[in-house]
Amino acid sequence: MITLFRFLSRLPLWLLHALGWGVGWGVFLASASYRQRFLANVRQAGIGRRQWMAAVGQAGMALVEWSRLWLGRPVRIEWEGAEHVAHALDQGRGIVFLTPHLGGFEITGQAYAQRFGARQPVTALFRPSRQPWLRELVAAARSRPGLKQVPTTVAGVKQMIKALRQGQAVGLLPDQVPPQGMGVWAPFFGKPAYTMTLSARLVQQTGALVVLVWGERLSWGRGYRMHARPLGVEMPAEIEAATAVVNQAMERVIAECPHQYLWGYARYKQPRQEAV
Q: Residue 221 and residue 20: Cα distance in Å, rounded?
C-alpha cells in the first residue's frame, strides 16, 4: 500500500482528481449501504440533485488526493479571508480552527503552516489509524514546520489547551462523531447528531477565538482556495448551546459548497463505547 501511495503522489493533481472521480462513483454504485446513507444525508440537508451528484465524484477525489498532499510536491494554494486569520493572531488569545469534512480538508493545516506557521504553529487533532503502516505513514507525512499533530487522547487534548494558552492555533473537525461521553446530541441540518463538545470546551477554557476554515478544491487540478472567516457570534457558556452554535456554523460553511462535502459520512450514527 505504501508503494501505491508513493506512486500516486507523483501524479499531477488533475489526473489524481480524475481517478478519484471514478473511485467516488465506483463506491457509490457498488455499495448499497454507502449509497443509502449518502442519499439519506443529502435529503436531510435539502441538497439538490445536481449538487449531490457532483459530491459523489468529489468524495473520491478527497480520498485519492491524500497521497499527493501527504507525500508529493506542494500544491498551489490561494487564500480568501487570510486577513481574518492575521487579525485573530494579532489578538494573542489563541485560535480554534473549525473545519468540516468539506473540500480538501486535509490541506487546511498545511495551508496555515505554509502562510502563518512561522508566526505561530498550529496543533491539529487526529484519530490514529488502526492500521500500523498507515498510522506511521500519516504521522510522518503530516508533520512539517509550523504543523504539529496530536492524537485524540487526554494527552493530546492537554497539548491543545497548552498551545492555546500560549497564543497558538489548534485545528479540528467538529463534524466527526466522538466516542460516547465526549459529546452531546445537537441538531445538524435539522436532525439530532452526536457532536463533540471539545471545540466549545477549548474556547471556554482558554478564551481562544474561533475561525472557520476550509479548502475549496479547484477544478482541473489547479490547487485549492482556502476560505477563512470568524465565527461571528459569541460562544454560549452552556455546553449544549455552544455545541449547537458549532453545528450551525458548520451548516453555513457546508452550504457555501455542498457539492464538496462528504455526504457519505455516517454523521448520525450512535457513538462508539470508547474512552478518550
A: 12
Instruction: Kindly state the cell numbers that stand for 184.
Output: 452531546
For 222-236, write each residue's pLDDT tens digit. 999 999 999 999 999
* Coil, strand or helix at 107: helix
CA dist 42 → 64, 107, 129, 178, 189 (Å): 22, 24, 27, 22, 10
Separation of alpha carbons 119 and 133, rounded Å: 33
- Buried b / exposed e over 81-101, threshold 16 CB at 10 Å, is bbebbeebbeeeebbbbbbbb
Quote the pTM value: 0.92
For residues 139 and 49, state if they share a domain.
Answer: no
Report DSSP letters for 10-65, one per residue. TS-HHHHHHHHHHHHHHHHHH-HHHHHHHHHHHHHHT--HHHHHHHHHHHHHHHHT
Whether the Cβ atoms of residue 215 and residue 111 lie closer than 8 Å to each other = yes
**Residues 6+ positions from 258 with CB-CB distance below 8 Å:** 45, 47, 51, 52, 55
In a domain, 229, yes or no: yes
pLDDT in tens, 135-184: 677 666 667 889 988 887 888 899 999 999 999 999 999 999 999 999 99
CB 207 within 8 A of CB 250: no
In the numeric block, the cell 482556495 is attached to: 225
Based on the domain organization, do 68 and 86 belong to the same domain? no
Same domain, 82 and 200: yes
Range of the structural domain that residue 34 is part of: 1-73
